[in-house]
Write a structure and sequence with these properties.
globular; alpha/beta; transferase
Length: 537
């Protein structure tokens, strides 16, 4: 039998995504228990993939033929029609200003169609990504744009461009593990830097431990004598998995440290438009322009408090990655990069040599929906006197309000449960942006044995995962969202959940109950005679 090993490249073994979504291995008794559960009653809180409530597109209709146009005109062809999603009246359908060629032919450029790049630039201006930008060395004109198939693809291109086995990248100690897979392929060194889990709006502390970061860079040759000095700093400003948010003053503090050493900032920001501010009204169905304008200003005001590293980039060190996955549709695989032209030129080269054209269908659907949202907003407000892309702003506000509602319900249900309120077995970081809720286990007080070593913590969190699964709930445990277990094991005793797949308040309440039950069972059973099965790693 052919093994195929001889055919694989020397670097193939590095192309592995850390298993943040995986589970197991399982002891036999647990496997039997899990097999008895009804998969239809599983509550999914691990994936950030939004459910259909978060989709603007309600229907896709396709008319197609087996006839070639040079043989017959379309009007003479037999047409098969189908639609996916909700049924719409034919009278509601309007002709788009895009040509069919834009969907099915190669794009104008491998780095995005001209129309989509133009739209991205307009969105960047609309949301004031370069707000208050001031630099004697750089201007907005020194930056360029390219469209990608999402921030995962963007980070892949950038890692391939910037990293190799002679380079070092700094990564938040708790992070979205796709970046680790992309870095692994390059052979680069990865060094974690500390996050500050005590940061919140009340104390105003930086979610990044800047004292640790400054000391790390200042004393690099002593702390990491065998590793090259870092050239890239990777950060998720609306942090995944913690939900902590870097405000613009925090970013300025971090940037001032990094620019002293000319370290590039890779800003990965797929959640930055999802503010959970209480100032937005719960009822977003505005029917007058004044109400909409008021909410728009509240929304923009909330976003400006966080801003982008680009707005403070005086030295041309920032590369910003954005995605439409969390605010439009994950399956479209659409995002973009903004960065210094010389870097973006090289990114375009990587796109040219790898994935090439972004899906014309994805770009055209997004472009047309942005135009259509303006028409819909005009209908709602009964006026044509709106700014371009105000409809997109309204859509983003709607998303924020829905995410806020779900997060509030879950947070309330969790913190009112006796497992939290009376027993204090866990803590929650109250979310103010994004879609994640961070649940920290109170191991230090009630299960300190788990904090004795990285191995002990890994085993404890594996058992925590067992309990969640036994209660028919899918979430992600902390040990699957870290860069280095040896560095961060004392911060890894957490569960990350998201509400984006949850259908309604009733399911949110049930999810909270299952989480609390799982945590209570973990503390009651683990490392006691009540523990029904061993932990396997």
């Amino acid at each position: 039998m052919t093994t195929y090993q001889a055919y694989f490249s020397k670097t193939d073994h590095k192309r592995i995504l850390p298993p943040s979504w995986g589970h197991g291995p399982f002891p036999a008794k647990l496997e039997q228990n899990l097999a008895l559960l009804d998969p239809n009653h599983m509550i999914t809180m691990g994936s950030g993939t939004p459910n259909k409530d978060f989709f603007s597109v309600k229907n896709i209709t396709v008319n197609h033929s087996i006839d070639l146009h040079y043989q017959k005109d379309a009007k003479d062809s037999h047409i098969n029609s189908f639609y996916i999603g909700e049924k719409v009246k034919q009278s509601d359908v309007q002709k788009a200003d895009s040509k069919i060629e834009e969907l099915f032919e190669y794009a104008d450029n491998t780095f995005g169609s001209y129309s989509t790049i133009d739209l991205v630039k307009k969105l960047t201006k609309k949301f004031e990504i370069f707000k208050d930008y001031k630099s004697n060395n750089f201007s907005e004109e020194d930056y360029d744009y390219c469209v990608t198939s999402g921030t995962s693809a963007s980070s892949y291109y950038l890692c391939q461009l910037l990293l190799d086995d002679t380079k070092t990248i700094l990564v938040e100690e708790l992070t979205f593990t796709v970046i680790m897979g992309n870095v692994s392929m390059t052979g680069a060194n990865v060094v974690p830097f500390n996050v500050n889990l005590n940061a919140n709006d009340e104390n105003g502390e930086n979610p990044i431990d800047t004292k640790y970061l400054e000391n790390l860079l200042k004393n690099w040759s002593t702390i990491h004598p065998k590793k090259p000095f870092p050239l890239v700093f990777y950060t998720i400003p609306v942090q995944n998995p913690t939900g902590l948010v870097q405000k613009i003053q925090h970013k300025r503090e971090i940037y001032d440290i990094l620019k002293k050493y000319k370290i590039l900032v890779m800003e990965d920001d797929p959640y930055g438009y999802l503010t959970l501010t209480d100032d937005l009204k719960s009822n977003c169905d505005f029917n007058d322009k004044a109400s909409f304008e008021s909410q728009k200003q509240i929304y923009f005001s909330a976003l400006k408090k966080t801003g982008s590293y680009l707005s403070i980039d005086t030295e041309g060190l920032v590369i910003r990655c954005e995605s439409f996955s969390k605010i439009f549709g994950t399956g479209l695989r659409l995002g973009f990069i903004i960065g210094p032209k010389k870097i973006i030129d090289r990114v375009k080269n990587y796109i040219e040599c790898s994935t090439r054209e972004i899906s014309g269908l994805s770009m055209t659907v997004f472009n047309q929906c942005c135009q259509g949202m303006d028409k819909l907003l005009c209908q709602n407000l009964k006026t044509n006197d709106i700014e371009q892309l105000d409809g997109w702003v309204q859509w983003c506000i709607n998303l924020c309000v829905l995410h806020r509602h779900k997060q509030k319900v879950l947070y309330k249900e969790l913190t009112e449960n006796p497992v939290y309120a009376s027993k204090r077995l866990f803590t929650c970081i109250k979310p103010t942006f994004g879609m994640f809720l961070f649940i920290g286990l109170n191991l230090n007080e009630f299960k300190s044995e788990a904090l004795k070593s990285p191995q002990a913590l890994t085993e404890a969190m594996q058992y925590m995962d067992y309990k969640l699964l036994e209660n028919n709930l899918d979430a992600i445990i902390g040990t699957r969202l870290i860069v280095d277990i040896n560095h961060s094991f004392k911060k890894s005793g957490f569960i990350r959940v998201t509400t984006s797949q949850i259908k309604n308040d009733k399911e949110l309440a049930e999810a909270a109950r299952r989480i609390c039950t799982s945590i209570e069972q973990f503390f009651d059973e683990y490392l006691t005679k009540k523990q029904p099965y061993p932990v396997l790693l």
